[in-house]
Write a structure and sequence with these properties.
Blueprint lengths: L6 H13 L5 H11 L7 H5 L1 H20 L2 H29 L6 H27 L3 H27 L18 E5 L9 E5 L2 E8 L2 E6 L13 E2 L3 E3 L6 E3 L5 E3 L10 E5 L2 E5 L15 E2 L1
Parallel strand pairs: 9-11
Antiparallel strand pairs: 1-10, 2-3, 3-4, 5-6, 6-7, 7-8, 9-10
């Protein structure tokens, strides 16, 4: 009897199939926007500041209203709750988009994080309703509960980033040679075949396309997928894990869920060896797009 899939995996696959599957170009564009591909950073991380900030301000104005009873503080608190709810909607859709590509063990933690955020949002929505009904004490109570739930959820969100590196650049910290260094004999690099080379334990992707030679970090910046096992799409490489696609020429992200570009290296052929180096400071992504020969 086949083993039942975990609940978090079933939910993830259902969301991915319903919203983003089948390679629809319009859906991919929407996904790129929600992931933050255009921003170069996860959009979700930026939008979460809106409800956290607005609801924190609401708690402050609630306290000030309780102290002196001024109507202006009540209006400010209610407005802040409403702004937080609007921000929570944006944070939710971007969060779901990011979570649809998260792998275990962070996937289950992300599901709990999302459910807690739904609960916090529901409590603040109830708070706003009670405030509009002039039941301010109850409204403040629901806000306090929502804020406590949101705080714990934010703690889990931080754990996903700092412990599981969700949304972090997986190429950060990789070391590439400062000077041209041989990493592979030219004879071992076939045409149109992504190939892995190594430099002091760091994998490097090499691709030859006719008279053009490309080199970049082989570890996908999104979730550490091995790009050498990916698929070439013209002058781009698609990650085998979540189908992020990067331009070979400069490493820019063409399709998410990745948001961080791939580091590219300068590359040349010398004495039958393919040599690479990190681009010198102040220069572009490197001497790519043509095959350089030296010696």
């Amino acid at each position: 009897m086949p083993e039942s899939k975990p609940l978090d995996e079933k939910i993830q696959k259902a969301i991915d199939k319903a919203l983003y599957a089948n390679g629809n170009p319009a859906a991919q564009k929407a996904r790129n926007f929600l992931n933050g591909t255009w921003l170069g950073e996860p959009l979700h991380a930026a939008l979460t500041d809106v409800p956290i900030g607005a609801w924190t301000v609401a708690m402050v104005f609630d306290a000030l209203e309780m102290i002196n009873g001024r109507h202006e503080f009540a209006v400010a608190a209610d407005t802040s709750v409403a702004i937080g709810l609007a921000g929570a909607a944006g944070a939710a859709i971007t969060g779901v988009t990011d979570w649809s590509d998260v792998d275990p063990p962070a996937r289950r933690l992300g599901l709990i994080h999302g459910l807690l955020n739904i609960g916090a949002t529901a409590l603040f929505a109830t708070s706003l309703i009670m405030r509009k009904k002039k039941a301010r004490n109850q409204g403040r109570g629901f806000s306090a509960l929502g804020y406590a739930l949101m705080t714990f959820s934010a703690h889990l969100g931080g754990k996903m980033v700092y412990e599981h590196r969700v949304g972090a650049d997986r190429t950060a910290g990789e070391t590439f040679p400062e000077n041209f260094t041989a990493v592979l004999p030219e004879s071992k690099l076939p045409d149109n075949t992504p190939t892995r080379a190594m430099y002091q334990g760091v994998p490097i992707l090499l691709v030859r396309r006719g008279e053009r030679l490309f080199a970049m970090a082989e570890t996908c910046s999104h979730f550490s997928g091995p790009l050498s096992e990916g698929k070439l799409e013209g002058d781009s490489i698609e990650c085998p894990y979540h189908a992020s696609r990067f331009a070979l020429e400069d490493g820019r992200v063409l399709n998410g869920p990745a948001v961080h570009p791939q580091p590219c290296l300068e590359v040349r052929v010398r004495n039958g060896q393919i040599e690479v180096r990190r681009p010198p400071s102040g220069r572009g992504q490197g001497l790519v797009g043509k095959l350089l020969r030296a010696g």
